[in-house]
């Protein structure tokens, strides 16, 4: 982690200018009581009216100088604070982006949002306005004490004692606030997490009528956050009155003791007037000390939280001098690969297969069998715990993550669309390289252009967060179009047609079969999605239970065959129980593809019949007519 002092050092010259402006402004402010003493002693008491105009010009010059240098110091400190917070937020976000997937498995989004936003803002205050005031308070106090000791060292002992008392109280308060602020920071992260999860999943909340439960959960965290802030306020309120009392009593003591010194002839009336003015000037640093301690404690606590993020290191690391493949062909080889996450059971065990460039691999298996984990290992979201994965005969750990991941177009099982136009969502990752013709071609191939072009803004339509407003099938088709548009040598579809009807899925499968130069890995639960693959793997419990072509797996009468029976209606070796053409021996005369077409046609016929029934019902068919 780059230290805060390093960020400040990057702007050392502007900070030096700001501090110089601060020193000049405060010094000019300290000259005013001296002129006041001159007015009292020389003009009012001495009767020398000739000096008055020069003294008045002096007051004017001090006022103008303070205006200029006060503006310069405040503007520069604010600007530097904004720059440093921007740099810190940028670096923190880059570090978070560099972390591996296992970090995000155990870290809440709300916590990261709190670190990137609120905690950086607290540091912004510390290196900006609050930092400026702290410097000003110390310099202001120091120079006032010097001026007071020059006027009368005995009388100066009173404000010195007052400052020591306020400083001690400030240290005690800062120690008590430090622990409270750490708890506030933690609870703020928890509150953000609850809010983010509920707002992102608001439709699920409403679907299950969980509004009351979720409100109660949010309120419990909100109450905790309130209690912690009240604890902070109680500490602040308990000690802040001491600063106020000292600031009010100090000028009074100065007048009482100073008046005695004037009567005894130890100081002039003008000197005492200047001393009183100094004592009133020293009041505001005492009043500010409590608030500044409060803000500074918050920044210290936030910095500790940010340090914890920087202590996290990516578990997936790149080699110093990565191998560069000139042109990725797309050959993939898993050589006895096993994988398990920390403190978890083994997810994959001894997985071995090879997919030649341009070929297709199908992967099937029950939920949790490890299908998606194979793709995560291929993209090095995680590193395999045993075995080796090769891309074009090169160990993927020897490749740069950029080349590896940009070689794979991945249609995820959980479709994520950004709140942007459809065009920009399809261009994702290659927005500066893809033209509109490519985007439209990919959309057509993914069977998405039909519904996109029915929209008023077509490809410039802005879709909601995570694709809100689109159906599951529409989101999947846009995600498929995004992958097709990239034209990467490897295409992965992870159960990416689950929300599509059979007819649309078959048309997309036909498109995929035309991609001769693309290596395809298709993860699916439907036989129709993988039946044309050059090899099909059936996973069970993280291991390969069966492998082979569609015909070979059917002949084995194993897990794949059972899946085939369940999807196409076969019972005890008999053909599916659907009305379809048969030969004289009672065997089906149509292929699986034709059967899919047939089922799709029956599905359309059923939907048309239901629509007709609905129209008849709306016209009063069920109420006004009796059917025999």
Helix percent reads: 55-70%
CATH hierarchy: architecture of the largest domain? Up-down Bundle
CA distance, first residue to last residue: 82 Å
> Main sheet, how many strands, which sense, barrel?
6 strands, mixed
Average of per-residue pLDDT values: 76
| Main CATH class of the largest domain | Mainly Alpha
Q: List segments where confidence is low: pLDDT < 50 over at least 5 consecutive residues.
A: 570-596, 598-602, 616-628
Q: Which strand order do you get reading across the main beta sheet?
A: 6-7-8-3-9-10
What is the number of domains?
3
How would you summarize the topology of this molecule?
Elements (H helix, E strand, L loop, with lengths): L3 H7 L1 H34 L6 H47 L2 H6 L2 H19 L1 H23 L1 H48 L1 H6 L3 H53 L5 H13 L1 H29 L20 E9 L5 E10 L4 E6 L5 H8 L7 E6 L2 E2 L5 H6 L1 E4 L10 H5 L9 H10 L3 H4 L19 H15 L3 E5 L7 H12 L5 E5 L3 H4 L4 E6 L2 E6 L1 H7 L2 H10 L23 H27 L2 H4 L4
What does this structure look like?
The chain is of the alpha/beta class and 628 residues long. It has 3 domains: 4-311, ABC transporter type 1, transmembrane domain (ABC transporter transmembrane region fold), CATH 1.20.1560; 332-546, P-loop containing nucleotide triphosphate hydrolases (Rossmann fold), CATH 3.40.50.300; 569-618. The chain has 23 helices and 10 strands. The strands form 2 sheets. A 6-stranded mixed beta sheet has the order 6-7-8-3-9-10, with helices on both faces. Strands 2-1-4-5 form a 4-stranded antiparallel beta sheet, with helices on one face. Helix 5 (109-127) packs parallel to helix 6 and helix 15 packs across helix 17. Residues 570-596, 598-602 and 616-628 have low confidence and may be disordered.
């Amino acid at each position: 982690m780059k230290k805060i002092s390093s960020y400040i050092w990057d702007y050392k010259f502007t900070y030096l200018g700001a501090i110089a402006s601060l020193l000049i402004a405060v010094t000019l402010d300290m000259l005013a009581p001296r002129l006041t003493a001159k007015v009292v002693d020389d003009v009012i008491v001495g009767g020398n009216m000739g000096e008055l105009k020069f003294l008045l010009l002096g007051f004017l010059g001090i006022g103008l100088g303070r205006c200029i240098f006060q503006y310069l110091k405040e503007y520069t400190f604010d600007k530097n604070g904004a720059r440093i917070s921007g740099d810190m937020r940028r670096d923190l976000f880059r570090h978070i982006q560099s972390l591996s997937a296992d970090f995000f498995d155990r870290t809440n989004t709300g916590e990261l949002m709190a670190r990137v936003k609120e905690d950086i803002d607290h540091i912004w205050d510390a290196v900006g306005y609050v930092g400026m005031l702290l410097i000003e308070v110390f310099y202001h106090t120091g120079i006032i004490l010097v001026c007071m000791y020059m006027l009368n060292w005995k009388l100066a002992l009173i404000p010195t004692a007052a400052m020591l008392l306020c400083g001690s109280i400030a240290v005690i308060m800062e120690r008590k606030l430090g622990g409270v602020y750490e708890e506030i920071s933690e609870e703020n992260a928890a509150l953000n997490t609850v809010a983010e999860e509920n707002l992102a999943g608001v439709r699920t909340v409403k679907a299950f009528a969980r509004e009351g439960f979720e409100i109660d959960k949010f309120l419990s965290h909100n109450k905790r956050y309130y209690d912690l802030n009240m604890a902070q306020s109680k500490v602040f309120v308990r000690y802040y009155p001491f600063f106020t009392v000292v600031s009010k009593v100090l000028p009074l003591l100065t007048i009482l003791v100073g008046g005695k010194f004037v009567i005894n002839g130890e100081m002039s009336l003008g000197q005492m007037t200047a001393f009183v003015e100094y004592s009133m000037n020293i009041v505001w640093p005492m009043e500010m000390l409590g608030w500044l301690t409060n803000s500074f404690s918050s920044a210290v606590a936030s910095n500790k939280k940010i340090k914890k993020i920087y202590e996290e290191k990516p578990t997936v690391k790149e080699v110093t001098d990565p191998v560069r493949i000139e042109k990725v062909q797309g050959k993939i080889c898993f050589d006895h690969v096993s994988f398990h996450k920390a403190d978890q059971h083994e997810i994959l065990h001894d997985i071995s297969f090879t997919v030649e460039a341009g070929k297709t691999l199908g992967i099937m298996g029950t939920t949790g069998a490890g299908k998606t984990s194979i793709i995560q290992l291929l993209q090095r979201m995680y590193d395999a715990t045993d075995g080796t994965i090769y891309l074009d005969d090169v160990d993927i750990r020897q490749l740069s993550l950029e080349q590896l991941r940009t070689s794979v177009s991945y249609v995820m099982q959980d479709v994520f669309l950004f709140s942007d136009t459809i065009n920009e969502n399809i261009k994702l990752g290659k927005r500066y390289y893809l033209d509109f013709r490519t985007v439209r071609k990919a959309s057509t191939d993914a069977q998405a252009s039909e519904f996109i072009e029915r929209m008023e803004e077509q490809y410039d339509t802005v879709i909601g967060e995570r694709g809100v407003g689109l159906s599951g099938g529409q989101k999947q088709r846009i995600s498929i179009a995004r992958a097709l548009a990239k034209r990467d040598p490897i295409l992965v579809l992870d159960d990416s047609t689950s929300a599509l009807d059979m007819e649309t899925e078959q048309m997309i499968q036909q498109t995929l079969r035309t991609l001769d130069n693309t290596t395809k890995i298709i993860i699916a639960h439907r036989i129709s999605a993988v039946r044309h693959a050059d090899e099909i793997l059936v996973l069970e419990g993280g291991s390969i239970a069966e492998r082979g072509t569609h015909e070979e797996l059917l002949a084995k009468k194993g897990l794949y065959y059972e899946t085939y029976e369940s999807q196409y209606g076969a019972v005890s070796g008999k053909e599916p129980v659907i009305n379809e053409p048969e030969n004289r021996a009672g065997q089906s005369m149509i292929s699986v593809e034709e059967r899919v077409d047939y089922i799709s046609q029956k599905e359309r016929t059923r939907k048309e019949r239901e629509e007709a029934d609905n129209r008849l019902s709306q016209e009063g068919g069920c109420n006004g007519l009796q059917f025999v």
